[in-house]
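INTERNAL TRANSFER SHEET
From: sequence group
To: structure group
Subject: Tyrosinase copper-binding domain-containing protein

Please process the attached sequence and return the structure record in the designated field. Keep the field labels unchanged so the import script can parse them.
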Amino acid sequence: MLSLLKKNFSYSSIEDDEYGSELKLDVTSPSRSSKFIIIKTGTLSLLLVAFLFLSSILSTWIVFFNSKAFSARQDIVSSPVPAASSLSCQQAPLRREWRTLTVVEQHDYVRAVRCLTTKPSRIGHNGTLYDDFPWVHKHTSTNTHKAAPFLPWHRYYLNLYETALKQECSFHGNLPYWDWSLDSSNFRASPVWDPSSGLGGDGTGPQSVGDGQCVTAGPFSDLEMSFYDGEYQPHCLSRGFPPSNELKALGELICPEAIKNLMKESTYEDFAPELERRAHTFLSRSVRGDLSRFTGPNDPIFFLHHVNIDRLWTQWQQIQPAERLSAYGGKANKDSDAVARMTDALDMGGLAPQSEKIQVIDVMDVKGGRFCYGY
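Return from structure group:
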């Protein structure tokens, strides 16, 4: 109202008294001479004028800020979502190579692994919680080997193993790995085979499974495994190192130069199968025994081996993280032509809680989603 008056008239003053105001207007009309009009307004009139004036200003600002907010929302939708690593995983705990651990750390890890062999099965067979891991590895092998899920499935599998060590056996460290490329030219001398600071060495006892013999020295020399190749077959931990000339040839698969060349692969479809072929051929034929079959997790060295595979995949991803943290493809199953997708579920065969519905996309980043660790 006040703005309307100002538009059509010129005003000379606004005079106040204790009850209201007088608006003195100089009225000009084409057909009349100028004269002054005194408009008496009470308190209510002034409040109405002020209200209408402020309302018009407020409406203008609301329209302005709404347009800005919409624009900002559009920017958020079109921009990449920040990775979980940048928000919640700034200081990720590190998984370290076996030979860099202190003796206390090595012994604590061995203690926790042995502890798992005393816990009841989650799956319901007549073995232990430790036996659950080779059992599941065997019974999901069609989907998890010689197919695209090989790397993401084992990443989640290792996470479940580490969680069991921490929750069931008070393990306070992080999963270690064995960088076998460091021992490619002298396999038998690797620190992981040391009977006191490692996981024990070659089988030297009675004949056992997988063309191996019972391991008689080291922290796992007294363990009895429940399954072999999916069947209930109680037996001692079995290893059978081949002759030195064969070990030397196998070492060429995973020597530093071979790994360096592997890292040059530009696609997941090329990198993942080649890493699987080299690493699995090397380990199964170098150690043999329990590692000759898909119940290979019977041998504790399996986990250090697979953490190293996960480390190499992580390093490959970090070469070009913007592309490779979502690089995935190939066959969903080695026995079918189904195409692998990021939304494919990872079947843990009862190891994971039923409420967890984990897909490939959930495990692609070690510093995002459900994970927070590094190397």
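Handover comment: The two ends are 71 Å apart (CA to CA). The mean pLDDT is 83.
Transfer complete.
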